[in-house]
Amino acid sequence: MIIGDDKKICTFLNPKYVFIPVKSKNIKEILVKDNSYVYKFDKIIEGDKDIYSSISGRVLGIKNMYYKNGVYPSLVIENDFTESVRKRVSAVKNIKNYNTEEAYDLLLKFGIDLNKIKTNNILVVNTIDLEQNIDINKYVIEDKIEKLYITISKIISMLKFKQAYVLVKSNEEDLLKKCTREARYYHNIRVKTIRKSYPVYSDKIIKKELDENNVTIVSMDLINKIYHILKRRTPIVEVYFSILGDSVSVKKTYYVKKYSLLSELFLKHADFTTKNVEVFINGLYTGEEVHSLNYVIDDDVRCVIINKKGTFSEKENSCEYCEKNCPLNLNVKYSDSLNSLTCPIYIKSTLEIEP
Predict the structure, then answer these.
(1) Where in the chain is the domain with CATH 3.40.50.11540?
(2) Predicted confidence band of residue 301 (pLDDT cuts 50, 70, 90)
(3) CA 123/CA 132 separation, integer angstroms
(4) Which pTM does this prediction carry?
(5) What CATH architecture is 95-232?
(6) How, if at all, do strands 303-308 and 238-244 pair?
(7) Tens digit of pLDDT for each residue in 33-74?
(8) How many CA atoms lie within 13 A of 105 on its CB side?
């Protein structure tokens, strides 16, 4: 299994540059000019979703950069490493003290619209990442479990859910114990487990495993972002990111500056252990193979997996049915253990192959 070497979250909070995407169809106004100075938390772009600077420094100009969904012009900001802000904002003592309107407005200001979370009977907080080999959500929980449960309780109250399930893999024994222990303090939060192993944990699979239809599923990462905004009253300028794979010297999860460059993180903290590698952004199944590490880390770029070339492709299924017919167009040939997994085609069908 491709996981980090240990449970400790490392930090990469001093990139030399950050790259702010300028996506024209979503932009109303660019609020900075070349050679202007920006402070950390300054609004840089006003649009459908406002964008804030993750560092303080000087705007150098515009350069085309790689993102998950393509190449976009990007404002280049050179870090002055001072973390200067225009005005210090004190953290609130207790997020429970927000009334619903205040919380809605503050979250919307920094890009989270609670109106888009459909209210059903049950809120399912998913600690499981989309792919089986990625564990970012698990690291987030272990870093701040008590604060996350407080946030879940607040969301239940604001959105009027009857109760919440915290969803955990049954084989994650330590995490399961921590989540269960914390849930004892809340009458409306329970821990649920998924027993089977799937290559991809889609919402459909989760609903089937829970045998529940009237549920709303959100990620633990979203809960963490809601907590940060309500507690700190500032935009999200740091994100979690993992370096994984069998051909890297260090496999860890990092807390990094949003809009920093993946190649800079990698050069400072890791190295290749083999020359011929395959590089995937965001996973082997649902991600994409890329040929460069010059990607900007943002909310859509969650991890990089670097494997020895041919590690999994040599173990392709002799039957090509999955590859040709997978409804999600998954890279199913990259599973080295399909004999112990439910067939990926099951994700949107009723076909199931038991181990």
Answers:
(1) 95-232
(2) very high
(3) 22
(4) 0.85
(5) 3-Layer(aba) Sandwich (3.40)
(6) parallel
(7) 999 999 999 999 998 889 999 999 999 999 999 998 889 999
(8) 5
